[in-house]
Amino acid sequence: MHQFRRDSGGSPSFWEENWASGGLEEAIRFCAVDPLRPLFVRHVPPGSRMLEGGCGLGQYVAYYAAQGRTVVGLDFARETLRQLRQVRRDLVLCVGDVARLPFRDGAFDAYYSGGVVEHFEGGPEAALREARRVLRPRGVLLVSVPYFSPLRRVLAPLRQAVWHRVAEPHVEAAGAATERRFWQYAFTPGEFTRLLVKTGFRVVARQAYSVLWGLHDLPGLPGLLARLRDRYRRRSEAPVRGATPGPTASRPAAGPTLSLAKRLLVSEDVMVPMAGTVVRVLRATCANMMMYVAQPEEEAGG
Question: What is the pTM of this model?
Answer without folding.
Answer: 0.83
